[in-house]
Amino acid sequence: MPVRGSLRALALVLVSATALVAPAAPAHAVAPVERNVVLRWNEALLSAVRSGTLGPPMVARALAVVHTCAYDAWAAYDAVAVGTRLGGSLRRPEAERTEANRAEAISYAAHLAAVDLYPAQRAGFDALMTELGYDPAAPTGQPARTGLAACQAVLDHRHGDGSNQLGGYADTTGYAPVNAPMVVADPLTSVADPSRWQPLTYRNRAGVLVTPPFLAPHWGGVASFTGRARDLADAVPAPAAYGTHAYRAQVAEIVSLTAGLTDRRKAIAEYWADGPSSETPPGHWSLFAQRVSARDGHGLDEDVKMFFALANSVMDAGIASWEAKRDHDSVRPITAVRFLHRGRQIPTWGGRVIDGATWTPYQAPTFPTPPFAEHVSGHSTFSAAAAEVLRRFTGGDAFGGEAVIAKGSSLVEPGVSPAHDVTLRWSTFTEAADQAGLSRRYGGIHFLAGDLQGRALGKAVGAVAWERAQAYWSGRG
Asked: Which of 2, 245, 349, 364 is 20 to 30 A removed from 63 (C-alpha atoms)?
């Protein structure tokens, strides 16, 4: 869940038969149960994500790499499961298949992966190893060797997976936008093609004027867990084109929706924002999974498999949604609304009436719209994929989560919204995923089709990722 700025006081509770309740502080505190090494490494990686600058698809991949390394190390100590890269070649004899050996192998694997992905955060990863009783500088003993061998095979594969991690994730396709940047403060910015994506120029939280480029336009070419992410994305219907009734209708819907925002809808928009300094949407669902682990009393084996399936589903969701974004290069609402309504008086959030040329989404002004194309919504795709895996893993849709949005904690309208504490509740994973998608329309950064098509894509991605994960841990590979 996002932990950002003045919203750090948020607390999430799980309402279940065991009445697990998180205290008001620290934010997102978990139930007082023993946390296995899978949970500890998930938490360590999310901490690195919050401190880092990687965007959602890279974060999704990082989670998948760490949890795949953990899974492959664990598989060597299981009687049936096979690893994703080395199959059953690392399998240890039955006498060695103790929980202690599994935990050690997992930790050395996760540490190697985490340092590879977030080298600047190595001190924190080393500290966790020490706390767990392992020496990161001296990987002696069979479990350590097994974990390192399993993870190195994953890293060798992922270093050549098309992400360009070793090149700082820089674009490899030569993408260039057809529209010149819009200066958000300038209502007179021109648009060459109102169907296509436009970069934005604005002041970030440091007060620096920035024009972020399209984030990772090459990401659709990253090797997916299932091998099917790109095909699923290519089946997504195209967005509405300028000059059509559908284009005008989607703009009208966004103007109307954002003009009618209530405190609750504003809270939903901000809660799910998952922007800079947060866990991002993929990490948000990893936090939900931690609650599921506590709620259902998971042990090490259950968590290895759950996070393996979940993380790879959100990685594939990122690949699929970015493939669609790059293929369609579609316009964001801020460009479309300003282009269609320049010189016209339109209603907007906060009860105001403005010139359409000055319209802005319900977002913090230091991050008015994420820097990549609209269609499809990444939030919708990530969330639907994650919800599908959690439904299948738990055997049902019941969730029982909630979060409290504190009075006046808005980053868009500080001290004003919400006027009172707002409690968001999700009885099911589906309800949470649907609200995540809807939140992007409340926030004014996605159109209806981008949300709904993203949900459909994510569900399909989650279904095939689940089947692939099951094949690995059932020994079918």
From this structure: 364
